[in-house]
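Suppose you are handed only these lines of text.
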Amino acid sequence: MIFSLNVLLILVRVSLSGAILDANYYQKTCPQVEDIIYTSVRNATANDLKVPARILRMFFHDCFIRGCDASVLLDSTPENKAEKDGHINLSLAAYNVIDDVKTMLEQSCPATVSCADIIAIAARDVVVISGGPSWSVLKGRKDGRISRAEETKTLPLSHDNTSQLIQSFSQRGLSVKDLVTLSGGHTLGRSRCSEFDYRLRNFSAAHDTDPTLDPEFATELKSKCPEHNKDPNAGENLDSTGLGFDNDYYKRIVGGKGLLVSDQTLLGDYRTRWRVEAFARYRRLFFWEFGPAMVRLGNVGVVESGEVRVNCRVVN
Ligand code: HEM
Ligand SMILES: *[C@@H]1O[C@H](CO)[C@@H](O)[C@H](O)[C@H]1NC(C)=O
Ligand SMILES: *[C@@H]1O[C@H](CO)[C@@H](O)[C@H](O)[C@H]1NC(C)=O
Ligand SMILES: *[C@@H]1O[C@H](CO)[C@@H](O)[C@H](O)[C@H]1NC(C)=O
Ligand SMILES: *[C@@H]1O[C@H](CO)[C@@H](O)[C@H](O)[C@H]1NC(C)=O
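From them, the structure of the protein bound to 2-acetamido-2-deoxy-beta-D-glucopyranose can be written out as follows.
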């Protein structure tokens, strides 16, 4: 109870702070910022195709915990366990990509570009690199000084239903439309078995497998995620084209092949179903909506006061 009250206070404070961002924020102080980030992220992707999914997810997690303030990048210290070592943490590989970008930016325009803005720009770039839409990224975020592992518990969970997801998004000032649109981020990347294998066996008293799951797909998943599975990294792509940004995620949901409960649930609720079906039918509609939704995600809990970290892993 005390915990959830704290969480609520954090969320309320975060969503009330007004966004003061600007597309031309670095025009005078670091005009080459977007070129440097794009080149670096593209190079990193050429070396490791997992980079786009990891960066996109990093942006989501950063903005959902304490707002978009790069709290996700801070390393743990002896006194403090940071977000990156909390529940459902991300992969180290993408943190290195941000470190490399930051090193280059510190050479070209020292102490100017915040780590939070780097994540926001890189998240747009990985979508473009993967074949998705582009948009103008608003900038001017400052970096936070606090990162707490336990706050990762406030992230939405893979078994959440639509009501829970709507609530989680609305606590951050995001709409039902934003929920459906941003969930399309699952057009990239994969999930480990542990996030969905409870859907495959002994699901409930009445159903051995989750009845919203296509039976053929369930069989396929059972072979990828065997019982007493020993490989913690075994898993499946979140849509059938894990490397390409497209609307296949929504087509799969319409076909009962949403991997996570939090994906499939969007078809089961009247508030979200029609938009899932529209995005499944019209790729261009999804692409049209995705950029503006990412801009709204990027406005969550933006801080005006704060610092520009010199090293994204430690406070100045
Ligand atoms: C709606 C609530 C959401 C839930 C419950 C959720 C949950 C998850 C889970 C459980 C995974 C797999 C993690 C693992 O295996 O360790 C995942 C992966 C991913 N999520 Fe989400 N997510 C949500 C929203 C989003 C949003 C809004 C975005 C971005 C716009 C996003 C981007 C991603 C990406 C790109 C991956 C793949 C990561 C990789 O392959 O490295 N997710 N998500
Ligand atoms: C490109 O990536 C390689 C391997 O990660 C790295 O050694 C090199 O410095 C990178 N070049 C640029 C311009 O980022
Ligand atoms: C995730 O957190 C655990 C500790 O909670 C840590 O041992 C592990 O290295 C972290 N993994 C990544 C990829 O950050
Ligand atoms: C969603 O989950 C919550 C918590 O488990 C539950 O109270 C609620 O009834 C569920 N809503 C729907 C529509 O299934
Ligand atoms: C299935 O679930 C029920 C109730 O949760 C449990 O009693 C039973 O042992 C489970 N069966 C298997 C094979 O895991």
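What can we learn from it? The longest strand covers residues 190-192. Residues 50, 53-54, 56-57, 60, 88, 91, 156-158, 160, 165, 182-183, 185-186, 188-192, 195, 235, 238, 260, 262 surround protoporphyrin IX containing FE (ligand 1) (CB under 6 Å).
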